[in-house]
Task: inverse folding
């Protein structure tokens, strides 16, 4: 009977078959200790010479790291073993023994080498557990929206409209149509959908042709976006708080083993509950100036600025009402102060930077045209987007959450390239 390691608890004393890989092995005379994994967990297989046929014991001597095997054995409870169980091996079938030494078996490889071996590096314990946390973040994100009555809207990858700045687009030729772009955001399409469904979200890849080499940037990353009709920017901030709180709590509840392996200090996550601190852009600039930063009102916040601000708090902090000049064309100006927009950036604590960008959207037709023209964008590319302001336009708000930055923060890892299975950066397109 084929049983996954995670289900060993239901088969104590039973003979089962484990299908997986050998990630380590040591021998002590008449006993082989096989460290086994199968994607759901790890366990130790004890193969004693006196309890198996000699051919089975001799076969085990040939095993190398990452040999693929089918192991038959009896599940035993063992409090000393990782996971609390081990396998008393009674049979062994070898599917493949690597003909060469496993390239990343040694511990002294540099990051560049490991990224070249990313397809194999994913098998390592740390990378495995980062991906398990990532999986839970995505699962929890979907569950949150399902529980809140949102509708999933899959937005296109190819687009003819610029969502953010024109300077960071991946441009391509699209048959006879002319120029098209890899999407920077699905937001514009979600705005259309929220006028039908009220509350909508997406989750998928986005692309930014930024020539950035920082630990916070990827050229291809995953983003969750949400849009809600009739929400103002304050409603929007409350929704963001609720989402982040839900995600963190679910990771704490469901990924305790992974967080332990990653040596994440969970005390820094357990207090992530609403309300989150809110700091106006004005006050943020004053704080930074007091700490010796050269920033002036009207400048966008840089990574170091965000770190200083977030270090003042032990929860994510929401910086709101940025200058109109540094934000996207679609953001609603403050009616009482048009030089700022009704927006916020959520900054993760511990110096992890922006994880959410959000705003109330412009709902007035004439104002949106004005902002498109001010940003020197082609009006004809936004004819359908302007239609949304012609027919039943209402105030609405939304945000985008970067999955990889959220993974980095929750896992406590240094570089964003480890937060995605196969990173795409300025100088990396494979594996």
Result:
């Amino acid at each position: 009977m084929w049983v996954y390691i995670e289900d060993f608890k239901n088969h104590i004393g039973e003979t089962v078959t484990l299908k997986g890989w050998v990630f380590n092995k040591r021998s002590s005379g008449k006993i082989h200790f096989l460290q086994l994994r199968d994607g759901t967990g790890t366990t130790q297989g004890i193969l004693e010479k006196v309890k198996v046929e000699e051919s089975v014991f001799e076969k085990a001597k040939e095993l190398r790291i990452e040999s693929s095997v089918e192991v038959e054995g009896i599940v035993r409870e063992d409090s000393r073993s990782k996971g609390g169980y081990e396998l008393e091996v009674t049979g062994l079938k070898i599917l493949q023994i690597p003909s060469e030494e496993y390239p990343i078996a040694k511990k002294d490889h540099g990051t560049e080498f490991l990224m070249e071996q990313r397809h194999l590096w994913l098998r390592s314990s740390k990378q495995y557990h980062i991906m398990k946390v990532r999986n839970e973040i995505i699962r929890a994100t979907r569950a949150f929206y399902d529980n809140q009555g949102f509708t999933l809207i899959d937005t296109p990858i190819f687009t003819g409209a610029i969502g953010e700045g024109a300077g960071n687009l991946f441009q391509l030729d699209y048959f006879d149509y002319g120029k098209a772009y890899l999407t920077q955001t699905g937001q514009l399409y979600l705005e259309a959908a929220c006028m039908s469904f009220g509350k909508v979200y997406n989750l998928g890849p986005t692309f930014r042709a930024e020539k950035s080499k920082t630990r916070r940037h990827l050229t291809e990353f995953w983003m969750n976006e949400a849009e809600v009709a009739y929400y103002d920017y304050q409603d929007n901030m409350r929704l963001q708080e609720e989402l982040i709180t839900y995600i963190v709590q679910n990771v704490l509840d469901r990924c305790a083993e992974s967080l332990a392996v990653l040596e994440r200090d969970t005390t820094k996550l357990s207090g992530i509950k609403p309300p989150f601190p809110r700091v106006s852009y004005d006050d943020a600039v004053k704080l930074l100036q007091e700490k010796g930063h050269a920033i002036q009102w009207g400048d966008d916040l840089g990574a170091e600025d965000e770190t200083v601000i977030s270090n003042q708090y032990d929860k994510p902090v929401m910086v709101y009402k940025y200058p109109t000049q540094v934000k996207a064309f679609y953001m609603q100006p403050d009616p009482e102060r048009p030089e700022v927009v009704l927006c916020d950036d959520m900054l993760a604590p511990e110096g992890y930077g922006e994880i959410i960008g959000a705003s109330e959207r412009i709902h007035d037709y004439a104002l949106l045209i004005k902002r498109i023209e001010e940003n020197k964008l082609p009006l004809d590319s936004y004819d359908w987007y302007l239609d949304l302001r012609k027919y039943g336009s209402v105030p609405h708000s939304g945000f985008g959450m970067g999955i990889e930055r959220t993974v980095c923060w929750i896992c406590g890892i240094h570089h964003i390239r480890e937060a995605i299975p196969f990173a795409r950066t300025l100088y990396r397109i494979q594996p």
About this structure: The chain has two domains: 5-96, 118-419.
